[in-house]
Amino acid sequence: MTKIVSNIADQTIAFIGAGSMAESIIAGLIADRIVAPSQLIATNRQDEDRLKWLEQHYGIKTTVNKEEAVAHANLIVLAMKPKDIESAMKAIRSYTSEKQLFISVLAGISTSYITELLGHHAPVIRTMPNTSAKVGESATAISAGAYATEREIQLACALFSAIGTVTVVPEEQLDAVTGLAGSGPAYIYYLVEAMEKAATEIGLDEEVGKELVIQTLIGAAKRLSTTSKTAEELYTQVMSPGGTTEAGLQVLAENHFQDAIVACIKRATERSKELGAQTKN
Q: Which domains does the chain have, with CATH numbers?
């Protein structure tokens, strides 16, 4: 993984779609002062209240006119729902050119399909960030389409390194990245919800339990990032024979916790592939 510092100050960036992922990227870019709010413009299909909120909260430009947004941008982030890709691209296609860079954050949508919808050979970069972009901690993977040069790859890396780490992978691996890291924050939040419920059931105050759970996660993540030991070695170190950790992990094993997590990630990966196939069909 790489964290790249690069000047993208000359880029005007349009977001086609203004949902949680677009907001996460916008928030990360502005918080890190990589671009000025005036360089960003967002549009969506019909939710004007959402656009007004983004404009007021982040100081960016917004418009309900996709054509206007695209015509004035040299970098276009495709952040609509995957099912809306065809209609959105039809609306903006005549306002696009091969001089623009298209960056997709859409699960399951291939660069070749985006090129087909564009009808020309503009560079396309497919990415899979996650919503931790909002706090500058996304784990983003990117893949280059057929017409993207090294310059465009570096520009995409610069953009996403502003909101976390960047890993360049072959495009055929992006569905797996989606299942693992793209959806990954939701798995962690789901685990946290269970831990917080357990905290109240064992007699802890709700706020105390939340604080303990969050710091435990932060500490574990930092430990993982600063050691060469495997996860198995780390949790084995915590256990002592007949101790509390061993007793707790035994319950997880009996309930096939790891098997469920593996199945979860595999199913999310399959769903990413299905979304791409359904959209193209």
A: 13-172 (3.40.50.720), 184-269 (1.10.3730.10)
